[in-house]
Amino acid sequence: MRVTTASTYRNFTGSVNDVHLKLNKSLNKVSTGEAYERAADNPLAHYTGKKIDSQYLDTLSKNTLLTDVKNRLYQQELGARDIQDILSKAKNQVQYAKTATTTGEHDIDTIKQDLLQKQQTIVNDLNTQYQDFYVFGGNDVSTTPFSLSASEDQMVLTYSHIFPGETEVTEFKMTFKKQNDGSYGFSQPIEVSEGGNLLSVADGQNKLVKAMSEQGRIDIGYGAINDRGTLLDTYTGGLNILTGLNSDAVKAMNSNTAYSNIMDAMNKSPIALIGKAVLGISDYQNTGDKDVLDDVLGDTIDEMSMTEHTLSTSYSDLGNKYKLLEDTAKKLDTIEDSLTEQYKDILGADPYASIMEMYNYQYSYNAALQVGSKLLSSSLFDFL
Fold this sequence. Notes:
Layout: H1 6-32, H2 43-100, H3 105-126, E1 129-130, E2 133-134, E3 146-150, E4 154-161, E5 170-178, E6 184-186, E7 191-194, E8 197-198, H4 201-213, E9 217-218, E10 232-233, H5 238-243, H6 247-251, H7 258-266, H8 270-287, H9 290-347, H10 351-375
Antiparallel strand pairs: 1-2, 3-4, 4-5, 5-6, 5-7, 7-8, 9-10
Helix pairs in contact: 1-10, 2-3, 2-8, 2-9, 3-8, 8-9
């Protein structure tokens, strides 16, 4: 008579279930590449892996952010280079204007119109967008920064900006024209309004200094997060490009002289110098005094040469920042690879061993099923 006790069935069922559970674990190990399913399987490896996870996610987030910052800086770099190129071409036109006065009124007027167009092109460069924000807007990426209106006797440059924590647009209206002493420059004081309401002279000046002091230091794997000064400033305002004064330089200025220093630099900006040449040509067309025109254009050419150098410095500074970001990106890629290898060494399963383990449990499970089919078969002969 065959032994078919309940205990035999229970032992057999428990053994089959245990082999099946191990088979499932081995299948999971092969599919996920993880050596352990629970922290209890290896607590030390689990918590070490958690630490690596945190480091990896931090590195990954920085690398993702770095891509956007690099693209924004690249657009800033292109804009600065384009403005420098426009100023260089404008200088050639101004040099030609000194001789064009002897070739005909049509030539000198053509040069003036070309210079006016170059002014507008510079403004367009300062309004460059990357994705959905303005790269020269400083901390304000949603407001169109610059607008320009020019006529025969003056030029009005308007800078619009929303400061952090504010909701109203602050407008800086700067009028460039011939002054009472015969010089060309921005009229003082400039008009500053917030939400359409004109601010006092002192408040307006403080706002301008504040706008040019804005910074966007971001933790992207360069510098130390506990030392803000070591982090890279990734924001560059359009006024900073025009004046050649970066935010650090403005912050270092004496508060009593910062505004006047900024406006002195604005009078040497590419837009102002081109405007000076335009107004000088307009005066010549009205008076016919070529000696005065030659003096104005000669001074303008010299000032344009110095401003070209200033723009070159700003362009180089942006290029250096971009190079630092590229180096940082390479470093972050290396860290990602290193963390991935560490994670595999600590929590990863050996693929070859896992596959062999899976096949062993699969064979064991199949054999158990075959034994079960024989154990559970019954016939009338078994009870005879």
